[in-house]
Amino acid sequence: MPVIDGSGPLLGGQPIVLSLDDARSSSTAWLLIGLTALNAPFKGGVMVPKPDFIVSLPTGPLGALDIPATWPAGLPSGFSTCFQWWVQDAAGPAGFAAATGLRATTP
C-alpha cells in the first residue's frame, strides 16, 4: 500500500518535501494535486483530490521517491491543497494502488 507523507512549514518561500513510500519498485507513480477534495470512486480505490494537476514520475528500486519543492509565496492563510499518489501495480485493484489523501493548509 503506497504511503504519502509531507514535511515543511507551508510558509511562502520555505522548503517542503512530498514523499512516496511502500510503492511498487521501478514503477510509474502519478501525483494528483487538487485545490478541492473529490473523494470519488476510481480504479478500485478513492480519488481524494480533484485532479487539477497530475505529475507522472518513476519510483525508485525501493518503491519510494521524494519531491523537494518550495511552498508558493502569497497564499492566504487557510488555503488548502490536496495530494494523493496513484501507482501502477498489477497486484492492485484495476492494476493500481493508491495512497490515502493528504491535505496541506497554510497557517
Outline the structure in words:
This protein has 107 residues and is an all-beta fold. The protein is 0% helix and 54% strand. Strands 3, 6, 8, 9 and 10 form a 5-stranded antiparallel beta sheet that branches. Strands 1-2-7 form a 3-stranded antiparallel beta sheet, with no helix packed on it. Strand 4 (37-42) and strand 5 (45-49) form a beta hairpin. The radius of gyration is 14 Å and the shape is globular. The mean pLDDT is 94.
Quick structural overview:
This protein has 107 residues and is an all-beta fold. 0% of the residues lie in helices and 54% in strands.
What percent of residues are in strands? over 45%
**Counted beta strands:** 10
Q: In which range does the helix fraction lie? A: under 10%
Distance between the termini: 30 Å
Provide the structure class: mainly beta
What is Rg?
A: 14 Å
The whole-number mean of residue pLDDT values reads 94
As residue ranges, the low-confidence spans are none
Number of helices, where a helix is a run of at least 4 consecutive DSSP H or I residues? 0
What is the approximate shape? globular
Order of helices and strands: EEEEEEEEEE
Largest sheet: 5 strands, antiparallel
List keywords for this structure.
globular, mainly beta, three-stranded antiparallel beta sheet, 107 residues, five-stranded antiparallel beta sheet
